[in-house]
């Protein structure tokens, strides 16, 4: 499957989950039990939120669950009729932040297919850890639907994994793109602006609001480019180019340390790691990287 | 602000929230208190999850909170420096379903601006009611950040309003569009297929998965069309056209009672309420209506 305007030659990182999620089996306890007893079942080996890696590289899978408790098996899906699981330890362990050294090391060695599995597992496990009690009545919740939900042990309300839509955008004016940096980022790093979408707004309205709040520029048109699942902990990144009516900035110092307008040549230099570039680009696994490349390659807004 | 390819002449219903959300004021207790004491402050009058309506039509606003408790005020935003609030009653009241008669009556009489306010308020209030306890530790949570969050009274974890991304799509093959109906829908009603996006997938992958699960068709290209906030309780509808590689259907009877391929002329007849149309269209306030009109008007996939 391809997108209308692929921003790069490859799919965004953390996408391309190759397992059949088999939604119809999740709610069928007998089918789930049969899959767990399947001789070909594979279990992802984890240590907390970090996957164990195979000697030859890639994710490590075992033939049986390394742990116990039927109730905590998450059905990741099927591949050629072979069920794939991960065991959820209900310990209330907190997910490490994105910038933990071990997460960075893991990302550096996984191939695209493994990154997609890792991302989905990490999002799911982080969600389970933060939903061990029912938000409605406070009673403990139990894993449900093969790990793709939880159910309250008292009021029986079902809870489903959360995915938070985030808009991330390049503002464009006069052939230049707006990039900004947060104070906590690595030295010299600039990227697209971004923010969480709120109840009661379209994707396009969220893009316009964030650009106004963070940089004081007004969007006149918004063009969707691509999307990416981001597993820290579970965002849907919606990447856009926004035409704005002025290049006069009014930056919110609480959000951005600095923002500036850059040319396509400057963006390409940054993406290509040119030491003479005026900024350091976001890493290749971030959708901002693909968005900036899409914009700089001239396939962005206004038929550029 | 306009979209790249507006599917209709007007914004999607429930969008167009005209208040400045004033995010920077939400976390500032002194600023919030000053806004609540503002002589021009307006308070939305609600009865549970239903807005009270003014005699001349539209939402009813009062000059002071009809109730009490400072902690339960939600800052909806500012309009020309005039703060707008709604009071949240922390009663654990359950939001009525979309098809409650009173909700239908309310939707029928509100103008676009009021529908946007109603939608955002309803999403927020429903979220508060389902997050009165901390999912991480089970202790009670308290309203926080002017109503745009809650904080745990024990572990202090912050919780933010949830918005669930949902993909909704017209599959296209040979110049015809795929529409389906669920058994619970009004007689004759058909619409675009839809489903919740899951952790670990792009928007495009979610579209392809839903079409495969529900109708047995394989997407080859996916084109984003438009988005809509849907307040029952809080979805972000992401509307797409998907080219599929065959018109052979394999419908999931658990999801769809029936699905069929329709021509642009048949879609237009349905949207225009023609009694000779082969199906009844979704209502104008649903994004499926705009999506079908966009497709039938020939601005859909493949340069049609």
Structure description:
- The structure is a homodimer.
- By secondary structure, the first copy, chain A, is α+β, with helices and mostly antiparallel strands.
- The first copy, chain A, has seven helices and 16 strands.
- Chain A folds into two domains: about 25-130, no CATH class; about 165-300, Nucleoside Triphosphate Pyrophosphohydrolase.
- In chain A, strands 11, 12, 13, 14, 15 and 16 form a six-stranded mixed β-sheet that branches.
- The longest helix of chain A has 18 residues, at about 110-130.
- Chain A is globular, with a radius of gyration of 21 Å.
- Chains A and B meet through strand 1, helix 4, helix 5 and strand 14 of A and strand 1, helix 4, helix 5 and strand 14 of B.
């Amino acid at each position: 499957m391809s997108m209308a305007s692929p921003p790069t030659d490859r799919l965004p990182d953390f996408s391309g989950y190759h397992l059949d999620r088999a939604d119809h089996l999740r709610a069928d306890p007998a089918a789930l039990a049969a899959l767990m007893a399947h001789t070909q079942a594979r279990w992802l080996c984890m240590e907390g939120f970090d996957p164990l890696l195979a000697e030859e590289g890639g994710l490590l899978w075992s033939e049986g669950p390394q742990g116990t408790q039927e109730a905590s098996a998450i059905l990741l899906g099927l591949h050629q009729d072979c069920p794939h699981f991960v065991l959820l330890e209900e310990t209330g362990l907190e997910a490490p932040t994105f910038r933990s050294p071990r997460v960075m090391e893991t990302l550096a060695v996984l191939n695209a297919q493994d990154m997609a599995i890792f991302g989905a597992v990490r999002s799911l496990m982080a969600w389970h850890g933060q939903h061990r009690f029912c938000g409605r009545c406070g009673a403990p919740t139990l894993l449900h639907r093969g790990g793709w939900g939880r159910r309250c042990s008292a009021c029986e309300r079902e809870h489903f994994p959360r995915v938070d839509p985030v808009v991330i955008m390049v503002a464009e004016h006069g052939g230049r793109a707006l990039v900004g940096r947060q104070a906590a980022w690595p030295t010299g790093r600039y990227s697209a602006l971004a923010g969480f979408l709120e109840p009661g707004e379209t994707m396009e309205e969220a893009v316009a609001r964030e650009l106004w709040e963070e940089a004081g520029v007004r969007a006149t048109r918004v063009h969707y480019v691509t999307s990416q699942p981001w597993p820290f902990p579970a965002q849907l990144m919606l990447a856009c180019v926004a035409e704005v009516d002025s290049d006069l900035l009014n930056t919110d110092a609480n959000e951005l340390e600095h923002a500036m307008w850059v040319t396509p040549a400057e963006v390409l230099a940054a993406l290509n790691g040119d030491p003479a570039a005026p900024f350091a680009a976001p890493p290749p696994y971030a959708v901002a990287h693909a968005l900036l490349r899409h914009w700089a390659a001239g396939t962005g807004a206004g038929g550029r």
